[in-house]
Amino acid sequence: MRAPWNGLDFSRADISVVLIVGVMLLWMENISAAELVLNNVNGPPFTTPQHDGFLDRIGSMAFGKAGVQLRLIDLPAERGLVNANAGIDDGDLTRIAGLEAVYPNLVRVPEKLLDWNFSAFSRKANFKVDGWGSLLPYRVGFIRGWKIAEANVGAAASVVMVDDERELFDLLRKDRVDIVIYTREMGASYLRLNKIDNVKLLEPPIAVREMFIYLNRKHIDLVPRLASALRDLKADGTYDREYRAAVSLAVRSATP
Fold first, then answer.
1. Which of 35, 95, 122, 192 could be bridged to 69 by S-S, CB 3.0 to 4.6 A?
2. Predicted model pTM
3. Taking a C-beta distance cutoff of 8 angstroms, is the pair 10, 193 a contact?
4. Measured distance CA(85)–CA(87) in Å, rounded
5. Burial class of residue 193 (count of CB atoms within 10 Å of its CB; 0-12, 13-18, 19+)
6. pLDDT in the model for residue 68
7. Percent over 70 (pLDDT), the chain
8. Any idea where the domains of the chain sit in the sequence?
9. Are 106 and 217 in contact (CB under 8 A)?
């Protein structure tokens, strides 16, 4: 039996094929829509161009367990926050707690993603770091949008802000600052990968802070699922294995 459709004759089989194709197209569209775009201010060994860093892997696992795909983009830190708060992008991968007060459209995933060891690097200055106050007599550089640095070294002898780690370490090379602030792990890897041997890491870290995923509030329903996924990855040992493989060994071999 054939059924007329807009003047054309279609069999039930034809209609079934059309319906199946339509359902498949809708399914494929939903799969595509399940991708979340988060800004990433990390570098090796946390994220890499090859997408095999610690956060590349653990982030993809956590988002996968929560039922969505993760795509990271690399915008300057300040612009990434503004875009995430405005809903242009879906969130930010690693930020300190408390940004909700300044960016009200961002919601923090309450399970910690990792710790950042905020550290000082220098060519000429050599002293034992004792918190943020010990940096104030010096000319200090850091990445624009790093709110913890903005809040703690604004009273330094001078402050220079740049957009990325290449510009950051260029400040030292050009003697425009005495100290730059970066994370211990990413700084050590940057020095090794770029064969820079006249910059040293000052110990101990200035501060150790928990870092969290932030999502735009339009994805607030995903927040508890992501927190649960991260807890599961920690509980079954995956988190520690991935950290040792990507971070611990890299820092051990990279620290000057």
1. 35
2. 0.82
3. no
4. 6
5. middle
6. 97
7. 84
8. 116-208
9. yes
Q: What six digits make up the tokens of 86?
A: 């405005």
Specify the pairing of strand 8-11 against strand 139-143.
unpaired
Instruction: Tell the CATH topology of 116-208.
Output: D-Maltodextrin-Binding Protein; domain 2 (3.40.190)
* Token pair for 230: 């991260």
Which has the closest alpha carbon to 179: 237, 234, 134?
A: 134
pLDDT 10s digits, 156-197: 989 999 999 999 999 999 999 999 999 999 999 999 999 999
| Partner residues linked to 96 by β-bridges | 211
State the Cα–Cα distance between residues 217 and 16, nearest whole angstrom.
40
- The backbone torsions φ and ψ at residue 162, rounded to the nearest 5 degrees and listed phi first, read -130, 175
Residue 124 has what DSSP assignment? Answer: S
- The token pair at 205 is 């870290």
Task: Examine the pLDDT at 17 and tell me if it is beyond 60.
Answer: no
> Quick check: 4 pLDDT over 60?
no
Q: Are 186 and 167 in contact (CB under 8 A)?
A: no
More confident residue, 16 or 176: 176
What sign does the CA torsion over 227, 233, 237, 240 have? Answer: negative
Helix, strand, coil distribution of the chain in percent, nearest 5: 45, 25, 30
User: Cα 232 from chain centroid?
Assistant: 20
Residue 82 reports pLDDT greater than 80 = yes
Helix/strand/coil for 54? helix
Q: Are 3 and 15 in contact (CB under 8 A)?
A: yes
**Of 175, 143, 149, nearest in space to 161 by CA:** 143
The mean pLDDT of 195-213, rounded to a whole number, is: 95
